[in-house]
Amino acid sequence: MRCLVVYCHPVPESFSAAVRDTVLAALSSRGCEVRLVDLYAEGFDPVVGADERRHMDRAPTDPKLAPHIENLKWAQAILFVYPTWWYGLPAMLKGWLDRVWATDVAFKLPPDGGRIVSLVPHIGRVGVVTTCGAAWWISMLMGQPGRKTILRGLRALCAPRTRTLYLAHYDMDKSTPQSRAAFLEKVKRKLAAF
Question: Global pTM?
Answer without folding.
Answer: 0.94
